Amino acid sequence: xDIRENIADLRRRIGEYARAAGREAGxxxxxAAAKTRTPQEINEVLAAGVTDIGExxxxxxxxxxxxxxxxxxxxxxxxxRNKVKYIIDKVKLIHSVDSLRLxxxxxxxxxxxxxxxxxxxxxxxxxxxxxxxxxxxxxxALVCEILDNCSHVRIRGFMGVAPAADDPEDVRVYxxxxxxxxxxxxxxxxxxxxxxxxxxxxxxxxGAAILEGANMVRVGTAIFGPRNYSQPQNF
Length: 235
Ligand SMILES: *Cc1c(COP(=O)(O)O)cnc(C)c1O
Hints:
Layout (H helix, E strand, L loop, with lengths): L2 H18 L8 E5 L5 H9 L4 E4 L2 H8 L6 E4 L8 H4 L3 E7 L2 H14 L3 E7 L12 H14 L3 E8 L11 H15 L6 E8 L5 H6 L4 E4 L1 H4 L11
Parallel strand pairs: 1-2, 1-8, 2-3, 3-4, 4-5, 5-6, 6-7
The site of pyridoxal-5'-phosphate (PLP) has 12 residues, from strand 8 and helix 9.
């Protein structure tokens, strides 16, 4: 696997989908989803010009944080409240906020650090039991609760995860639902609401996500190759 070639190819494909959707490649932020990857691999990605790195687990993020070149880190996986304190000053954006209790913990820790933390609300549009996130119909209420209760949190958009499907065309309807919620909030105004990011799409469905309006894609396999969870991770 040549990471540099994979990224060049990925950027070309992102550009094609962006143009097909009437936008420019430069409007799409590429986040390298780095779970199970080594600091060396992440450094290769950074050397190839990618600036944003996503992690799913707090411990993995902390283990790699010091070992890689400077980057913009994103928390893209489920976040437990008792771990917020470890990452609050390390990540640029938390994508996976799906409860008021989690937002309140982020708020409290951000206040302690003198920060206002940027977050996305995670929407589980297909209502899958196995996935985190709020239903599209509940997203509005959660956004309002967070705005009312969390003065050190700024809501920057939504993250959507689609169900696995053989044909990405089949999940466009779910991406479209998250985009509709995003658009509805873009028209409302609040000092801690700055709807800018729609984080949707992974290796197998980033094209469908971009066509439906995503402007942040989280891509792992198409950059690094297949993951091997069974290998002991020494980094
Ligand atoms: C692993 C992961 C990705 C990337 O998945 P790939 O299929 O490897 O591109 C994106 N988002 C989240 C939340 C992930 O956990």
